[in-house]
């Protein structure tokens, strides 16, 4: 039983309802009046959709004004049923799916009862038809069936026949009269032709009550809160499955938005946008070898005039510099890949496993392109790195040679007297590494490559032994520094220059790359930030637009008993489904994505690490999307979304 006590409601200073009081119970009840008389406002108050009013409204002793969100959801799922002028059905769902909507908040969906209702309402043969293809009368029957699935105590109908023809309107009213024999049915209408002699009438005019029901009101039994009212995870995923199937276009757009935004963000974190300068340096490495990053530190050298096409006349000059202690300084530097002594040895003969080999003399300074096996000689014992070309003459693999002992014999020049004196040297050392000793030189604009087969590299202890045998005392040991990056190479070069040391290397060539890298880093950094922001904005925009386009859908859920917590769980299951689909789609299309990033940025992102990063980025964007949709859910005003009228 409803009891309305001194209820008033104002809009913009005007009374929509002015101090009305009445009681209403079982049977068919009509709220009538002209447009603007307050009918819809009264309906909103009775149903709990409007709780900001003066006075009191009760249903079975429970204050409707004080219903919490959870209690209101329980009422809409178990006590109140709603039939609307424009039906308020989910157009892309089938008849049966619409009818079963309130049942998702139950432990089990009573499909047998749904079939019975559809049969009684003569629409059983339309059970699997999409609602949008039905006539107005058929839609109204679907709406009635959906509300009867709740087995409600009250049916509230807002202009239920205004969108129907005369015959269909009469049929709808006959159904409502039959329902009113066991329930309270409240019909808001301006059509007095629908009213018969047995109907109870509440007549409003400009917010004033001018006619009320008879004093004797049949009461409704007391409320019993013994029914389950929750959305299980299982039912949330079932509802999500239905929504995906029926709204596949919307699902596809949202999923693609997550995947594309994730890929765009991946290009920023992978450094793809800023990888152009690195790509240019890689091309130089292909041309000049890894030795391009070498810095050679020598105790003395002669500067020559007119190098590399420079015809400016400059005198030759001998340069002598103190490089003592520099080797130890750079051995453990984090910018350095490795260091190696550049000791030239002539007339080399080596003995391995009892067999002697003569090494061809090249007349070049020992050169290392890259280490192909093992490690550089840094230990305290006599250790040596041998050329890969020598290993090939032995007929074994690089790895097989590592750890073997080698008897090394050769000659070293002693320049202590100012004149070269050739001294014989020999030692026994352990092979710890194998090096590619290919050298690259530019001649008349063309780069030529050749192998320096007599490039052997020694540990400091081994080299001290050799120099001791050659009686070298004054000349410091020359060495090279292999920098990790072009920037590291220029940084070390500048540092040496500041300390008065002139190193040797292809600095001009590398400096151009470093300068390009600095420029592109600044530009790509800005571009990466913008792309990252645009990706997030794209996701927010799409999900915000989609969310607000779904406000009517959310409102239909709410009048079916779903409150915000239920819709949040549904939002979560939908987002999980979209996220998993977006990730799978990214993984499946990753070869195509990789081709695109190679073409645009010259960078390969098809790596396990990058794909895992992409998965994480999509998941993070999905969290943003989840909260964006949650805003639309929270902001959904049921009465406005369902357009229930203004007064």
UniProtKB/TrEMBL annotation:
PROSITE patterns: ABC_TRANSPORTER_1 (PS00211), ABC_TRANSPORTER_2 (PS50893). SUPFAM superfamilies: P-loop containing nucleoside triphosphate hydrolases (SSF52540). It holds the Pfam family ABC_tran. Residues 2-231 form the ABC transporter domain. The chain crosses the membrane at residues 251-273, 527-548, 569-590, 610-634. Keywords: ATP-binding, Membrane, Nucleotide-binding, Transmembrane, Transmembrane helix, Transport. One of its GO terms (molecular function) is ATP hydrolysis activity. InterPro entries: AAA+_ATPase, ABC_transporter-like_ATP-bd, ABC_transporter-like_CS, MacB-like_ATP-bd, P-loop_NTPase. Belongs to the ABC transporter superfamily. This is ABC transporter. It comes from Paenibacillus antarcticus.
């Amino acid at each position: 039983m409803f009891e309305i006590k001194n209820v008033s409601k104002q809009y913009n200073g005007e009374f929509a309802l002015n101090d009305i009081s009445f009681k209403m119970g079982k049977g068919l009840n009509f709220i009538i009046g002209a447009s603007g008389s307050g009918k819809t406002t009264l309906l909103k108050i009775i149903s709990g959709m409007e709780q900001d009013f003066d006075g009191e409204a009760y249903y079975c002793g429970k204050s409707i004004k004080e219903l919490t969100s959870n209690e209101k959801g329980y009422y809409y799922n178990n006590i109140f049923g709603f039939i609307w002028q424009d039906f308020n059905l989910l157009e892309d769902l089938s008849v049966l799916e619409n009818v079963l909507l309130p049942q998702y908040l139950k432990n089990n969906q009573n499909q047998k009862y749904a079939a019975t209702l559809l049969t009684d309402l003569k629409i059983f043969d339309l059970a699997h038809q999409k609602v949008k293809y039905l006539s107005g009368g058929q839609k109204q029957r679907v709406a009635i069936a959906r509300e009867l699935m709740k087995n409600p105590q009250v049916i509230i109908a807002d202009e239920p026949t205004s969108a129907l023809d005369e015959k269909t309107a009469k049929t709808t009213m006959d159904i409502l009269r039959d329902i009113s024999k066991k329930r309270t049915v409240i019909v808001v209408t301006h059509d007095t032709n629908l009213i018969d002699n047995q109907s109870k009438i509440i007549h409003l005019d400009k917010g004033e009550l001018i006619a009320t029901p008879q004093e004797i009101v049949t009461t409704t039994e007391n409320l019993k809160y013994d029914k389950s009212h929750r959305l299980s995870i299982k039912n949330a995923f079932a509802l999500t499955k239905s929504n995906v199937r029926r709204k596949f276009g919307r699902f596809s757009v949202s999923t693609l938005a997550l995947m594309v935004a994730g890929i765009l963000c991946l290009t920023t974190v992978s450094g793809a946008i800023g990888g152009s300068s690195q790509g240019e340096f890689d091309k130089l490495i292909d041309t000049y070898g890894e030795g391009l990053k070498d810095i050679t530190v020598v105790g003395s050298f002669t500067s020559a005039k007119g190098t590399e096409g420079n015809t400016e006349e400059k005198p030759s000059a001998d340069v002598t510099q103190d490089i003592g202690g520099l080797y130890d300084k750079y051995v453990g530097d984090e910018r350095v890949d490795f260091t190696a002594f550049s000791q030239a040895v002539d007339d080399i003969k080596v003995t391995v496993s009892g067999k002697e080999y003569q090494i061809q003399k090249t007349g070049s300074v020992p050169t290392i392109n890259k280490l192909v096996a093992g490690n550089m000689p840094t230990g305290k014992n006599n250790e040596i790195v041998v050329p890969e070309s020598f290993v090939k003459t032995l007929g074994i693999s690089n790895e097989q040679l590592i750890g073997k002992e080698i008897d090394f014999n050769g000659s070293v020049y002693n320049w202590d007297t100012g004149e070269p004196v050739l001294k014989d040297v020999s030692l026994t050392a352990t092979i710890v590494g194998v090096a590619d000793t290919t050298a690259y030189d530019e001649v008349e604009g063309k780069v030529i490559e050749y192998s320096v087969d007599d490039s052997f590299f020694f540990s400091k202890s081994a080299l001290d032994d050799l120099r001791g045998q050659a009686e070298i005392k004054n000349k410091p040991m020359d060495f090279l520094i292999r920098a990790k990056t072009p920037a590291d190479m220029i940084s070390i070069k500048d540092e040496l220059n500041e300390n008065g040391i002139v190193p040797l290397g292809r600095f001009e060539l590398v400096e151009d790359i470093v300068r390009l890298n600095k420029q592109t880093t600044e530009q790509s950094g800005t571009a990466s930030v913008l792309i990252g922001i645009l990706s997030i904005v794209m996701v927010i925009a799409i999900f915000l637009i989609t969310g607000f386009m779904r406000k009517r859908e959310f409102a239909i859920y709410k009048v079916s008993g779903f409150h915000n917590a239920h819709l949040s769980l549904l939002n979560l299951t939908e987002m999980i489904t979209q996220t998993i689909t977006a990730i799978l789609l990214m993984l499946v299309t990753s070869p195509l994505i990789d081709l695109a990033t190679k073409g645009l940025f010259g960078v390969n992102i098809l790596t396990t690490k990058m794909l895992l990063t992409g998965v994480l980025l999509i998941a993070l964007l999905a969290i943003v999307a989840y909260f964006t949709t949650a805003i639309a859910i929270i902001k959904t005003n049921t009465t406005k979304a369902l357009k229930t009228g203004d007064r």
